[in-house]
Specification:
single chain, 70 residues, mainly alpha, 3 helices, 79% helix, elongated
Length: 70
């Protein structure tokens, strides 16, 4: 289970953060001022926050109730 969780959180973070950062960087090399769709940016930010919370939140409960991986 932990391997799947680590894989999923790594995929989400690399996709949203690395790709978005690369787009900002390379777009800034050619343009003085960039524009973006605020609706799409808000949706991506919400999905990133929701996925991180979904991956991190079960950990304290598993520790508290002493759940062991099989």
């Amino acid at each position: 289970i932990r391997v799947v969780q680590a894989s999923m959180i790594g995929s989400v973070l690399s996709n949203l953060l690395l790709v978005l950062g690369s787009c900002f960087f390379f777009g800034g090399l050619t343009r003085q001022e960039q524009t973006f769709n605020s609706t799409a940016a808000t949706a991506n930010m919400s999905l990133l926050a929701l996925s991180c919370i979904g991956m991190v939140l079960p950990t304290p409960f598993a520790e508290y109730y002493e759940v062991q991986d099989e």
